[in-house]
Amino acid sequence: MRRALILLLLLLAPLSALALSSPADMLPDPAQEERARALGREIRCMVCQNQSIEDSEVGLARDLRLLVRERIAAGASDAEVKSFLHARYGDFVLLRPPFAWNTLILWATPVLALLGGFGLIWLSRRKAVQPTPPAPLTAEEQRRLAELERVGGGTQA
Amino acid sequence: MIAELGHFALALALVLALAQTILPLLGAELRNGRMMATAAPLALGQCLALASAFLCLMYAYAINDTTVANVVQNSHSAKPMLYKITGTWGNHEGSLILWVMILGICGAAVSTFGRDLPTALRARVLGVLGLISVGFLAFTIRTSNPFQRIWPPAPDGQGLNPILQDIGLAMHPPLLYLGYVGYAVTFAFAIAALIEGRVDAAWGRWVRPWSLAAWSFLTLGIALGSWWAYYELGWGGYWFWDPVENASLLPWLIGTALLHSAIVVEKREALKTWTILLAIIAFGMSLLGTFLVRSGVLNSVHSFANDPERGLFILGLLMFYLAGAFLLFAFRARAMIPTGIFAPVSREGAIVLNNLLVCCITAVVFVGTLWPLFADALFGTKVSVGPPFFNSASFPLVVPLLLAMAAGPLMPWKRAQFMPVVMKLWWVAVIGFAAFFVALLASGQKVLPAVGFAFAAWVIGAAFADIADRTALFRTNLGNAWNRAKGLPRAAWGAAIAHAGIGITAAGIAGMGLAQERLASLAPGQSTTLAGYEWRLEEVRDEVGPNWTARRATITLLRDGAVVRVMRPARRFFPLARQNTTEVAIHTNLIADLYAVIGEEDAASGRAVIRLHYNFLAPWIWLGAGIMALGGGLSLADRRVRVSAPNRATARATTGPRPA
Amino acid sequence: MTPLSRRLLLAAPFAAAALGGAGFYTALQRQRTGAYNPRGVPSALIGQAPPAFDLPPVPESGVEPFAAADLRGLGQPALVNFWASWCVPCVIEHPQLMALSRQGVPVFGIAYKDKPADSLTFLRRHGNPFRRLAQDVPGRVAIDWGVYGVPESYLLDAQGIIRWRYAGPITPEVLEQDLRILLARHAA
């Protein structure tokens, strides 16, 4: 899983140290820093493919982290920062798919699944109340029945 | 020579598997006892052949046989012996052999422990297991032969992926596979039942332990993977909703539903069709995971080579088993007539609710994982579906699930009433609310973690209330309750403990919501504070290992001036692989993990970047998973499982009545 | 529930599995032909003019730097290439850029997060395919373009609208099979 992800990173950028971001990158205002962090967790690190920019130490992720912080320090709202990045990197950069006509099924999954499940339960309970009559015997079974009635019993072979 | 032997053992296993498919299945159809009797020895033989093949491959790894392509690609002479051996299954080919070998072991187990099973049922189960083996062995031999030789031999192996050299990660696949393959057994039982057109309590008594065992192993495997990510990647994260992680979560979720519905089949002979369906889907999800991990259709990066050719083969297998089973289901499931009728409010009803919610969560994970593929094909758009989606879409389903799982075990079968349950649980609800307000106040108004704590308290408290109710703890004296507790079926204990495990994991997750973090750039001798501790960087120095060099920091952890612990996080460099890894230092006191990572150093100022985490209740996440698996194991040890249905009467008769 | 609807219900899992299987099969086929690439991400800038920027030159390169305005109305398609001397695939790509430049395709280079001295050494060793060359040391202009790795190339049509983006080295195959056709298509 993640191991390989890191592998890929290392393939792309051999010898780059697993750097941590520098404390100097953080915003002085803890509330703003907290906002930046929450926002950064919703932005995909494009190179690493399955990490947010907050979790990645690729150079680009760090650049984007700084960019997010700069914008927030400049007074941009979360939505503005997101749309700024969206305009450059497209839908792919958003880890939370935006509500849109083509993500409708995705976001409706919990509701659809619940409705479907309740429907299924309702259907099967209706059936349980009215037990179905046993299927009519086939010709083969009829013959076997006649035989059974003739012999009247048997022993195990 | 050894490699050829392994190759031969694989081919032999394929032939045996083929025989194990045809003879017993045909024998069961023809009611030919001798043909059916071949199933057990064939299964044992197949198991032995697969074990030999696996050992041959392991040997090639152990001696670093550079004439074997698989070893050259994935191993290296400089690896420590332990990781040479665990490297056997650290690659696509080797992991397939492990997978099939575990399947062989399960087949042997069914044939050995299944003597009480009706002969035809056992023959059919083993036949289906043989059929699964045939497919995967054919796949292995055709596309992924690990015994391929190369000539001239390579000077040494190429594979020295340092991140894979870790014992947690080495044990992760075997545990996962034990889970996946366990569902192959319940699948085989489902298919056998469909062929026979009969599902009864005896069938349920067989399926339940297998699904329990598979579930317990899968729980451990997933927890181990998550723990590995936590301590190895150095980000303090434990679950990333990565497609590969989701691929293991899907069978776990369906397996959880199966576990519960199998109880209803066993006890009440209801939900038969549904349980069969779940057993098929659980294995289908295991196969789907295999497909997703090895075909590369999803945007998840992993170490197995992405080969569309192989993907096509696995898809073929997936469709053969899954669609084949569903086809059989479509024609034969009508024969399953439920006899147990129950009211909506009852233990059965609660289990149906559990199944509904768990399946809805499965649907969310399933759709979310596959959505990027779907969106690309349908709308031509590239989208990401990441943790924010999974968290927000599954949360509203997890809440009612946690609410309901507390009440379920306290309800009687067939028909229940709300009031008695409320009477048994009101004090648990009070504790839950108390936990919420205490957490809210203590955390500085963080609502989500507080909700998490409330539910954790609710679930753990309800598990306790369940045991208290069964032992009449509050209605009689302690000695009496103790005697009752001893007489309680282990399955009841197992269920309560597993439920409590969920609560403990929930508490851990909630606690992680309160984790604190500090990033500091320190020169030796300087210190910073986090979570009431003083963390003092003493020094950073070089260290040399067998195949790596490292920069290791020494951090002294102080509380009120007294040394608590010395932590030594490091950054390792593997020159051959040209890779860096982080060695996190973790000090745990079971209430919280103190977690330190060393980052870059600035040569000019002598400062090093240190990231420190205070992960409140983090160990509980995996502790809870361990307790869940323990509960599963305890349930497995129940008398009802050990003494199976047909022998029950005779067992009683021979040993005489026992004080139950 | 009527027997028929029950029968349909029991057949539903099979139908779902068959549908899913067909879907996965299509995905695998598309992956094989290259129509579907799980890692490929389209640029958000296709069909748009490049973002506004003005970058400094690589000192001592003797090549003029450029700004967004310089990419407008060239009258012929052009390639904007983000590269760096530390990037290994860039070495693989370089001969193709040289070939393009020899054929008269204007290639605009942006040295991404590179030391000027290293950029110069690279160009001296491998040749200079760039009509204009600028440097983006902070990497901010690259973010405005939506660059997520080097090398990355953008094809602009004669009016200066971005028509195509390729992330990764332009190999001889990419040059022959994709880029040539696109250049011809946007020649006017």
From TrEMBL, chain A:
UniProt KW keywords: Cytochrome c-type biogenesis, Heme, Iron, Membrane, Metal-binding, Signal, Transmembrane, Transmembrane helix
Signal peptide: 1-19
Domain CcmH/CycL/Ccl2/NrfF N-terminal: 8-148
Segments traversing the membrane: 104-123
Entries under CDD domains matching the protein: CcmH_N
InterPro entries linked to this entry: C-type_cytochrome_biogenesis, CcmH/CycL/Ccl2/NrfF_N, CcmH/CycL/NrfF/Ccl2_sf
Gene3D superfamilies named among the record's database cross-references: Cytochrome C biogenesis protein
Role noted for this protein: Possible subunit of a heme lyase.
Family: Belongs to the CcmH/CycL/Ccl2/NrfF family.
Official protein name in the record: Cytochrome c-type biogenesis protein
Native source organism of the sequence: Falsiroseomonas selenitidurans
Lineage, broadest ranks: Bacteria, Pseudomonadati, Pseudomonadota, Alphaproteobacteria, Acetobacterales
Automatic annotation (TrEMBL), chain B:
Subcellular location, record wording: Cell inner membrane
The Cytochrome c-type biogenesis protein CcmF C-terminal domain, residue ranges: 315-639
Name of the protein described by the UniProt record: Heme lyase CcmF/NrfE family subunit
Keyword Membrane: yes
The protein's role, per its UniProt record: Required for the biogenesis of c-type cytochromes. Possible subunit of a heme lyase.
Similarity annotation: Belongs to the CcmF/CycK/Ccl1/NrfE/CcsA family.
Membrane topology: Multi-pass membrane protein
One of the Pfam families matching this protein, by short name: Cytochrom_C_asm
Main localization of the protein described in the UniProt heading: membrane
Keywords: Cell inner membrane, Cell membrane, Cytochrome c-type biogenesis, Lyase, Membrane, Transmembrane, Transmembrane helix
Transmembrane segments: 6-27, 39-62, 96-114, 121-141, 175-195, 207-229, 249-266, 273-292, 312-331, 352-374, 394-413, 425-442, 448-468, 491-515, 617-637
All copies of domain Cytochrome c assembly protein, residue ranges: 89-295
InterPro entries reported for this sequence: CcmF_C (IPR032523), Cyt_c_assembly (IPR002541), Cyt_c_biogenesis (IPR003567), Cyt_c_biogenesis_CcmF (IPR003568)
GO-annotated molecular function: lyase activity
TrEMBL record, chain C:
InterPro entries recorded: AhpC/TSA, Periplasmic_diS_OxRdtase_DsbE, Thioredoxin-like_sf, Thioredoxin_CS, Thioredoxin_domain, Thioredoxin_ResA/DsbE_sf
Coiled-coil portions: none
Pfam families the record matches: AhpC-TSA (PF00578)
Keyword Disulfide bond: yes
Domain called Thioredoxin: residue spans: 44-184
Keyword field: Cytochrome c-type biogenesis, Disulfide bond, Redox-active center
Record-given protein name: DsbE family thiol:disulfide interchange protein
Species the sequence originates in: Falsiroseomonas selenitidurans
